[in-house]
């Protein structure tokens, strides 16, 4: 069913930024929802292929292994991580899982992660690294003691993942209950679908690009759900306001009222997303440029990807889905038919008046005036009903103060004199 929004000629002539800021409904976002569905479906499909085909690049916190750490400065200058990979491969005949530089300046260190190594293998790698790079300690002297190693069990990462899954399930259930109570079931369903889309796309981006998945990444993935939900609640609250009493009106359909709500909140959502992304970009700059890659960088990466896709899905996926779910209701289907019938009558009356010699602007003005009066009367009746409900549920007004009652009931001197004088006159 078509839900295109009618725009006045004056609105369509305005510039892009003017229409964004005014929110007059000039962008037919709901009417183009099938394009958005196709885009998000293709995106989810690509991400699912990446998840199941390429998989994730987990750190040793999840799979277990050995971590070797040494200063990033040697007697011959700064140590290159590519040279470290080659030295590791030459010592054991296998490449390390990851080699990263953590920190900056004189405190920078190189972390080498690999599968679980035996003591002999670890000693062999450390001796090879020391002989080739001569890492320098805090005292400025090269020593084998500055190279340290540790074994990491994968159980800790598994526990973090398990708790994250439990937390995600509880979060989704509570969100669905809240949205179903505050709004309605169709909106709750649309919001949950959008949240699932955010998780799949974020995970797919990590799978395709090869970002390292650490416990910080899992924690950051949970934080983006709140941001995505915030945008959805803002839009749905405006939809609730615009569609109040809509079933008794014939001015616009549910889809058109929802599209107007999207336009009215579009600029706010864009500004909120841009402002929220600034500190995340700051985390990336600090994490990569100053501290080097690490957990801070993993946290910022997942938030950056999640916020971008979360803002897009709240606007272009959750809200159009809510419209489609709502239009399955026979009451809203009948209301849409009344809107279409009203517009057909307006067009027919305008054609008849044009045949009678009445100009088009005059005919349209008369028809719209009468029709708007009917809609306004229905809207006012709906508002009176809501006020009556609110009044019956509210506390009664306080009684006037005793002093005010006494002032109004106390006889004035003039009336007393008048009454007394009248008696004396008798």
Walkthrough of the structure:
This protein is of the alpha+beta class. It folds into three domains: 9-58 and 156-328, Up-down Bundle (Multidrug efflux transporter AcrB transmembrane fold); 65-152, Alpha-Beta Plaits; 332-392, no CATH class. Helix content is 69%, strand content 7%. The strands form three sheets. It has a four-stranded antiparallel sheet with strand order 5-6-2-7. A two-stranded parallel sheet has the order 1-8. Strand 3 (73-74) and strand 4 form a beta hairpin. Helix 5 (81-92) crosses helix 6, helix 7 (155-182) packs parallel to helix 9 (215-242) and helix 12 (330-355) packs antiparallel against helix 13 (360-393). The longest helix is centred in the middle third of the chain and has 37 residues, at 254-290. The protein is elongated. The model is unreliable at 1-12, 393-409 and 414-426 (pLDDT under 50).
Question: Which key features would you list for this structure?
Answer:
alpha+beta, 8 strands, Alpha-Beta Plaits, two-stranded parallel ribbon, Multidrug efflux transporter AcrB transmembrane fold, 7% strand, 3 domains, four-stranded antiparallel beta sheet, 426 residues, 15 helices
């Amino acid at each position: 069913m078509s839900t295109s929004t009618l725009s006045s000629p004056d609105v369509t002539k305005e510039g892009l930024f003017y229409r964004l800021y005014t929110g007059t409904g000039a962008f037919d976002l709901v009417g183009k929802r099938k394009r958005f569905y196709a885009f998000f479906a293709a995106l989810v499909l690509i991400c699912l292929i990446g998840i199941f085909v390429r998989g994730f690049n987990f750190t040793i916190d999840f799979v277990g292994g050995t971590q070797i750490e040494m200063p990033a400065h040697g007697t011959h200058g700064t140590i290159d991580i590519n040279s470290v990979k080659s030295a590791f491969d030459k010592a054991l005949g296998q490449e390390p899982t990851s080699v990263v530089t953590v920190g900056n300046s004189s405190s920078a260190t190189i972390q080498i992660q690999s599968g679980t190594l035996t003591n002999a293998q670890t000693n062999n790698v450390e001796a090879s690294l020391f002989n080739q790079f001569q890492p320098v300690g805090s005292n400025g002297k090269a020593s084998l003691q500055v190279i340290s190693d540790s074994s990491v069990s994968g159980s800790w990462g598994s526990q973090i993942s398990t708790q994250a899954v439990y937390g995600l399930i509880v979060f989704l259930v509570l969100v669905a209950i809240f949205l179903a109570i505050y709004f309605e079931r169709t909106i709750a369903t649309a919001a949950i679908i959008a949240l699932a889309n955010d998780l799949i796309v974020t995970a797919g981006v990590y799978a395709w690009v090869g970002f390292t998945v650490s416990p910080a990444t899992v924690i950051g993935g949970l934080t983006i759900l709140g941001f995505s939900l915030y945008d959805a609640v803002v839009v749905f609250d405006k939809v609730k306001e615009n569609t109040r009493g809509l079933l008794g009106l014939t001015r616009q359909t549910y889809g058109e009222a929802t599209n107007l709500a999207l336009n009215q909140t579009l600029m706010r959502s864009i500004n909120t997303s841009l402002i929220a992304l600034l500190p995340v970009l700051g985390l990336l700059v600090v994490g990569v440029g100053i501290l080097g890659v690490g957990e801070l960088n993993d946290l910022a990466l997942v938030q950056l990807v999640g916020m971008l896709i979360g803002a897009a899905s709240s606007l272009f996926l959750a809200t159009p889905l809510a419209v489609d779910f709502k239009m399955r209701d026979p009451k809203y289907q009948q209301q849409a038919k009344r809107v279409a019938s009203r517009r057909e009558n307006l067009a027919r009356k305008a054609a008849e008046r044009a045949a009678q010699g009445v100009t088009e602007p005059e005919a349209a003005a008369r028809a719209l005036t009468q029709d708007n009066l009917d809609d306004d009367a229905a809207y006012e009746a709906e508002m009176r009903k809501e006020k009556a409900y609110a009044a019956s549920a509210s506390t009664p007004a306080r009684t006037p103060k005793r002093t005010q009652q006494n002032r109004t009931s106390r006889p004035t001197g003039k009336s007393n004199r008048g009454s007394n004088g009248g008696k004396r006159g008798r």
